[in-house]
Specification:
This protein is an alpha+beta fold and about 120 residues long. The chain contains two helices and nine strands, in the order αββββββαβββ.
């Protein structure tokens, strides 16, 4: 948990919102939340004063995308290099967008994508 939290906070400058030994909530861009859970820790319900969080679990490699501006692409390539994060693949899409693919410490696929990847972005 600590290794993953450090990776996301250091690389993406995410804000730590809440957390303990089983989970971590990180603020993304002031309007989204990235939840990280320790493997196996979310399989049991959690009773809180305000209600019950039902059990849930995901396994395997996930794919997360983070939107960046076209002008940030070179800066992000340099940031990844400074953090020792290898870019696994770069894709230039037909609409003109670019995606950089790389892995987090748990081997989840992360993508930085510029406008022009999707019709809505």
């Amino acid at each position: 948990m600590e290794r993953s939290r450090r990776f996301y906070c250091d690389l993406f400058k995410l804000e730590m919102l809440d957390g303990n030994e089983r989970f971590c909530a990180l603020g993304v861009a002031g309007s989204h939340v990235l939840l990280l859970f320790k493997a196996g820790e979310s399989r049991v319900p959690v009773q809180l004063p305000g209600g019950l969080i039902p059990p849930h679990e995901a396994s395997g490699q996930a794919h997360l995308g983070f939107a960046i501006s076209r002008g940030e692409l070179g800066e992000w390539q340099a940031i990844l290099a400074r953090h020792g994060v290898a870019i696994e693949s770069t894709v230039v899409w037909p609409r003109g967008g670019t995606s950089l693919y790389f892995r987090d410490p748990d081997q989840h696929l992360l993508e930085l994508l510029t406008p022009g990847v999707w019709a809505l972005y």
